[in-house]
Design goal:
Structural class: alpha+beta
Radius of gyration: 27 Å
Number of strands: 27
Largest sheet: 4 strands, antiparallel
CATH architecture of the domain at 4-167: Alpha-Beta Complex
Strand order of the largest sheet: 4-12-9-10
Helix content: 25-40%
Number of helices: 8
Oligomer: single chain
Shape: elongated
Length: 417
């Protein structure tokens, strides 16, 4: 039975008797260092330049590089920090503060100031062991306890240096690394398969919607040319028009007496709606007027073109465009139509969608009953697909928790090798 001792730190508790607790600054080969604080000119080619957004799933992912810098800038930047394979980088500012990534390539690159380097003294700590430790909740809880907020959350270099790590003897660190490499790889393989399945479900969902809103449900109906290349053939009786002929379109701050009601007050607690969950339900900071239910909201900035059917009274945020029917249309059908890559097919990619641009969007002129039947069908089918995606996302969440527990147990000595 493993003999335990008090670590001397409440949030760590007991650890094996021969293990030690030391701050990061006492186990590194070089002082904890961040990237240059100047903003370089970025080019299409050159030396890859990475920042916080490149820290993805525990690695530095070059697919998310900022761009490339010149050889002249590289020669200057590498005097402060020259990344190499197996280096560990911690995000020290921004929304992803505390995220950790390891370098798994020999490629030459440079990093920016939001990233801080951890490079261990090999006689004290094995780099991969510290990497696993930094992925654990032990590290994350210390980061969250110590971070500060200005315009965004951040942790200083001194905070990183003082963060405590639990150190087994180096020989045991190596054994822990070997076990965690094997066990986490098994979990990651299952997670990867689930992610592939989710992507296939999403692709099928998108294909089903597009095929249904452009071709209908009745495959026996004669078809005709729509006159629009990307739409192709449509059923007889269908036409193509512009969205503006079926909807009045308003920006989130616009006022129209027919479609809005009383000014905002605490006695009318209707939600402010964005098209992203993080801002849903916040009252009263963008628009004083409430829109009636049975509308379609479309994101004008950010996640451009995302449409949501609204069947409740609501206050829209300013970046939303609100489509209010002025003729008999099924707003659910219209939502499916807009979400079926129609924005991309109507025009080139845009960073902002205006009322005028949305009004000019091509729209199939479909009889109302056909719209309703299609919307009912897609409601049923997408509900089932979304339920499967939700189940698989929950399985991924369970794997992530299992992975966290596994790492925590080994780096705290709850499990021994």
């Amino acid at each position: 039975m493993t003999r335990m001792k008090e670590s001397g730190i409440d949030w760590i508790g007991q650890i094996p008797e021969e293990w030690r607790v030391r701050p990061i600054k006492h186990i590194v080969e070089t002082p904890v260092t961040d990237g240059p604080h100047e903003t370089p000119v970025l080019y299409e080619t050159g030396i890859p330049f990475l920042s916080a957004e490149a820290v993805k799933d525990g690695v530095l992912d070059f697919n998310f590089k900022r761009g490339y810098i010149s050889l002249k800038d590289h020669d200057r930047f590498k005097k402060k920090i020259s990344p190499k394979k197996d280096d560990i980088f911690i995000v020290k500012s921004g929304a992803t503060t505390g995220n950790v990534g390891i370098v798994n390539t020999d490629e030459i690159f440079d990093i920016w100031s939001p990233l801080a380097l951890i490079r261990c003294n090999k006689t004290l700590a094995i780099q991969k062991y510290i990497y696993f430790y930094l992925l654990s909740t032990l590290f994350k809880s210390q980061v969250e306890f110590n971070w500060s907020f200005g315009t965004q959350q951040n942790i200083g270099m001194g905070v990183i240096e003082r963060i405590k790590v639990i150190l087994p003897p180096v020989s045991e660190q190596q054994k822990i690394v070997e076990v965690l490499d094997k066990k986490t790889a098994q979990l990651d393989k299952v997670k990867s398969l689930l992610e592939e399945q989710i992507q296939k479900l999403k692709d099928y969902r998108a294909s089903l919607i597009y095929e249904t809103v452009t071709k209908g449900l009745d495959k026996t109906v004669p078809m005709k040319d729509s006159g629009i290349d990307w739409i192709g053939q449509v059923p007889e009786g269908w036409g193509v028009s512009r969205l503006k002929y079926y909807f009045d379109i308003y920006a989130g701050g616009d006022i129209d007496e027919r479609n809005t009601v009383e000014e905002y007050s605490e006695s009318h607690p209707y939600p402010v709606l964005s098209n992203s969950l993080e801002n849903e339900g916040v009252l009263g900071y963008t628009n004083k007027y409430r829109f009636k239910k049975n509308c379609v909201t479309v994101t004008g900035r950010g996640d451009v073109g995302k449409a949501v059917y609204r069947n409740i009274n609501f206050y829209p945020v300013v970046r939303l465009l609100v489509c209010v029917p002025k003729s008999k249309v099924d707003c659910r059908f219209v939502t499916y139509w807009i979400n079926s890559a129609i924005i991309e097919k109507n025009q080139t990619a845009v960073s902002q969608l205006t009322i005028q641009m949305l009004g000019e969007l091509l729209f199939v002129n479909v009889p109302f009953l056909v719209q309703k039947n299609i919307a009912d069908f897609l409601d049923r089918e997408t509900f089932q697909i979304d339920k499967l995606i939700q189940i698989k996302n929950q399985q991924i969440e369970n794997i992530n928790k299992q992975r966290q527990t596994l790492i925590y147990d080994y780096v705290t000595g709850k499990r021994r090798v």
